[in-house]
Amino acid sequence: MFTLPILAEQGVNGLVLGSMYALVATGLTLIWGTMKMLNFAHGEFYMLGGFGTYFGLVFLGLPPWLVVPVTVALVFAVALAFEKAIIGPLMGRPGWDISTVVATLGAGIFLQNFAFKFWGGDFLNVPYMFDGILRIGGMAFAWHRIYILALSLTVIITFWQFVKRTRFGMALRATAQDNEAAVLMGIPFRRIYTITFGLSASLAAIAGSALAPIFSVNPWMGMVPLIKALIVVILGGLGSFSGAILGGFILGVCESYSVLFLSSGWKDLISFSLLIIILVIKPSGLFGAKEW
Amino acid sequence: MEKTPTALLLKHMRVTNPLPMWAVFGVLALLPLFVRNDYYISIITLCLIYATLASTWNLMAGYAGILSFGHQAFYGLGAYFSALITINLDISPWLALPLGGLFAAFLSLAIGLPCLRLRIAPYIAIATLAFSEIMLVVCKNWVALTRGEMGLSGIPPLTGWQWGDWFAVSFSGGTKLPSFYVMLGIYIVAMLVMYWMMNSKVGLALKSLREDQDAAASLGIDITRYKIIVFLVSSFFAGVTGAFYAHYISILAPESVFGVTEMVEIVAITLVGGIGTFLGPTVGAFTLVVGLELLRGMEDYRFMVYGVMLVVVVLLLPHGLLLGFQQTVARLKAILRTGKAQ
Fold first, then answer.
1. Domain extents for chain B?
2. 20 to 30 A Cα–Cα from B285, which one of A2, A75, B88, B211?
3. Spatial contact of A216 and A265, defined as CB atoms under 8 Å apart
4. Tens of pLDDT, residues A241-274
5. Which of A105, A113, A230 minimises the CB distance to B310?
């Protein structure tokens, strides 16, 4: 059972899964870092990414290079409207930490049941965007999984550079560090918040689109990635960009290897127990969140 | 000092006037005199189940500021524990009700203790959500004990009595009235315990620690102790309610008690009624359960409505129906008195 090819394959599967956790978690940690809020509807942007990909590829029969960017752009637009309608009005009111949790939870439930009502509760299958299998030695890797890994690494690196080098990235970091000081420097923080929220949702949509062929598309597909991403951001330290990425890979690999020891039903216990243990031992996470 | 939405409610929070509470108890106790239909009685029983769950969640989230997303776990633990000991060990369901509560309270420490170190709402929400998901995974996969997804069936109902041949109380079949009164009893006891808590030193301590934990600690308030008391009391009554539900409905499935949807219902009910108000969760339970029952044809939209309602309440009515109503009444009175709108 524990031959080298199996271990290597599981390792790659873990990295693939982990790269997706990293993408979803980066989105969560990004808005925590700037807006100090947690988005419980984050999984629904992932779900919208999955449905967009399904409609584009299967329903309309369009090629992946068109479907993926259009889907992500649409989710970005939905997220902007979401932020304007629901998050904006809560700003400046007391109880920001609780009100945003409840409002996003409600919006997430609405989106799930909206999808259920209008798009149905069936598990929809999406074809691999890249067919074929890569064989190295005795190991086999589906090209689609390699695409996922390459895509997420590209997105993560691009995003990192974007935040580091562009004017917008600088404004974003300034707002995250000190909101009031940023405003005094003439940074329009409301606009920064809205765009950050949109970017965060886009990351989730990319993950949902990439994973649609692996896990089928359905209205509740966002719940598991959301919970996993919540675990990842706490593992990495809420608000930490590097923490979300490293945490994502750690969780992905741990889960992937745990399948060798545990039946898949019990697999989820690993991540939840990991979360509780972190909260007991080191609530600040790997990269030290400031408050918890 | 960090302001919670309930911080504004501070002046409304003192439950010094017990009259509304007794009035609610009285109306509920006399309700069967006017409502004869068994179907209506079962709806009201459901309202009471959710009123108890929401009120005990309110004790945690509204009064102590512990935004728990794991309340359904205590409900489920009480339900499953009570069902399993009556099925397997032949224990009387009447004894199993409090035992289910005690079991839930005992396991609440497993999440209550790790939560003590957490301060900000999102962390507590995630930790408690993880706890309830662990319970769901265990319940689904420990097939030898819980029968997993197949669920438990044939859970014995509460045992009835027979006094002579003219007076009998039966919980199996026939009228739902006895079950209604049992649930009303659980609700009343839970409310009285919380009422007593809120008007004792405990209530004062809870308010202070919700507003500012550090200031509370510096004044010598034992934060740890009070938080644990809240966890124990709140989970105990959620567990008893779960145990009642198990014997009342006689079948259990993991998702029906441990599911996230239960949590959503509890949160929605409390917020609609008014978080941090004593009778708000009860108002919310009757409004939402009866409201959705009236909109039977809208069953498909049930959770869409819940979702929208959470958003709308947070955006437009952050203090819930109860205080919203009181404020409107106060405003109308002021208009009547001064003769002009303010």
1. 5-258
2. B211
3. no
4. 888 899 999 989 888 888 787 777 777 788 888 8
5. A105
What CA–CA distances, in Å, run from A236 to A28, A43, A46, A100, B125? 12, 19, 21, 22, 17
* Cβ–Cβ gap B141/A263 under 8 Å: yes
Q: How many domains does chain A have?
A: 1
CB contact under 8 Å between A95 and B129, yes or no, is no
- B143 neighbors B74 (Cβ within 8 angstroms): no
Which tokens in the block code for residue A14?
């873990």
Residue A160: give the domain boundaries.
18-220
DSSP string, B63-104: IS----S-HHHHHHHHHHHHHHHHHHH---HHHHHHHHHHHH
Distance from CA of A135 to the nearest CA of B (A): 36
CA–CA distances in Å: residue A246 to residues A48, B64, B271: 25, 35, 37
Assigned domain for A77 exists: yes
Strand partners, A140: A135
Contact criterion met (CB < 8 Å) for A101 and B120:
no
Q: Output the furthest CA–CA distance in chain B (Å, rounded).
A: 71
Contact A97 B268 (CB under 8 A): no
- pLDDT for the residue B11: 47
> Is the residue at A181 inside a domain?
yes
* CB B54, CB B269: distance < 8 Å: yes
Note the CATH number of domain B5-258: 1.10.3470
Query: Which residue ranges of chain B lie beneath pLDDT 50?
Result: 1-12
Q: Identify any residues that bridge with B182 across adjacent strands, giving them in sequence order.
A: none
Looking at chain A, which residue has its C-alpha nearest residue B271?
A102
DSSP string, chain A: ---HHHHHHHHHHHHHHHHHHHHHHHHHHHHHHHH----TTHHHHHHHHHHHHHIIIIIS---HHHHHHHHHHHHHHHHHHHIIIIIGGGTTSS-HHHHHHHHHHHHHHHHHHHHHHHH-SS-B----SS-SEEEETTEEEEHHHHHHHHHHHHHHHHHHHHHHHSHHHHHHHHHHH-HHHHHHTT--HHHHHHHHHHHHHHHHHHHHHHHTTTSPB-TTTTHHHHHHHHHHHHHH-TT-HHHHHHHHHHHHHHHHHHTTTS-HHHHHHHHHHHHHHHHHH-TTTTTT-S--
Q: ipTM of the predicted structure?
A: 0.82
